[in-house]
Amino acid sequence: MELYQRIFEICLQRGFFCPSAEIYGSLAGFYDYGPIGFRIVEKMKQLWREKFVIQPGFVEIKTSLILPKKVLEASGHVKNFSDPVVFCKKEKKAFRADQLLANYGEFHHFANLEELKEKFKKLKILCPDCKSELSEPTTFNLMFGTTAGAIDPAEVYLRPETAQGIFLNFKRVFLQAGSKLPLAIAQAGPSFRNEVSPRKGLIRLREFEQMELEYFFNPKKPEFEGFEKFASKKIIFKLNNQEKQELSLKQALEKKLVPNQIFSTFLLWQQELFLSWGIDQKKLWFKIIPKQELPHYSLCNVDAEVSTSYGEIELSGTSYRTDFDLSSHQNYSKENLEVLDEETKTKFIPHVIEPSIGLDRSFYTVLEHCYREKSKTKDWEWFAFPPAIAPYSAAVFPLMKKDGLDSLAKEVYLLLKQNKIDCYYSDVGSIGKRYARADEIGVPYCLTIDYDSLEKNDLTLRFRDDGKQIRLAINVLASKILELKEKGLTSLEQ
Ligand code: GAP
Fold it and tell me: Which CATH superfamily is 379-487 part of?
């Protein structure tokens, strides 16, 4: 069994995620998060906020999920946001043309439909499922369209990225923020794409969550405040689609792999964020997108990629979007979106650098990279989540549900809650089973109230990774857990 199949089974059993509308047979590309998965993704998002939003001059907004057609005409999505598709002539099935070509060793960047048609003809590609003939490649727009209103309904679309809502709010937020650049506006929330072949669980969805940031700056001032602190930090770049090289941000700039300090800092922040989520550094790199594959509006794109049992997956894209979006919205809306350069007294449209991270794919990657098989010391599969994203920081157990052990355990549970430590209480089953259940969802600390606790007002704290225990006075418990969590300690001898 492949790892992703096992992870999927575990996720269904343990409340991480499941297909949405499951009792009706579900629809490809839509998933629901269960009680455990939901807690983890919310904590992952919180760490993104701490890294990408809680910064001087950075703000976060929440914008509409539905946008008028005009907005998406201006952004180019109505015309260009398409995938090449082919249809099976025998069965009602659609396939991404570029993905079929990849099966033939042709990693074709889709730039020209005619070229694609030629390739299909030449290679005589058949339906991968039933070997029947395929239609000619055509394009399929990935946006979900609908209408708004009962009279003269307006044509609208579900947003295909959170970014457009940010561009639409730029002028207002800029004025509120004191009309100063640089200005960073972030947004986390759902995006929708009518993917031709949603596959691989959470990897290619039709509804998914993005965490995006648009950093607006004067292109004549591409410096990033405090960059000296980051300049010597290293990340692994993937060049020319294959060769990997570890380089400091300074070296990457000298080699002109990235356009400026802002762009390189965001790559580093992404690496730091991914590692804080528990993604394995050895399986993470940043791929420089070759010039010929860049979207028309971008001067540079770098994708964060990871290796998983599904293969290599893109977790995020960082793009130098220049003034493309604001200029285009200015043209279409006739609203002036220029800002004033105080020094030169000239007006210009700010440039934008955008780190855009997918939450669902990242969550799946965290599951794979933190998954641990049964071993000599643990007869169950478990997750080594960093405490910062574990669904609960602690579990509180009375050894027995009697003799006052349960009421003391409930007091401990309340004490932790008052200290804003998220925990759960359980008195069901043997203590060994309760430890196993906690490990299975990656809870880092189990706290057990036993008979000694009644006399000494203490308890045992069991570390998840090595199962070792220490005794701890209840009056220092909250501060100890916060300290362990802060240091990310999950075994006694770490
Ligand atoms: N605003 C830029 C933008 O949307 P993108 O590369 O299309 O760029 C950014 O998307 C990230 O969103 C991707 O790196 C990926 O993590 C996530 N993403 C995109 N399409 C997705 C899909 N169909 N299912 C799940 N995640 C997706």
Answer: Anticodon-binding domain (3.40.50.800)
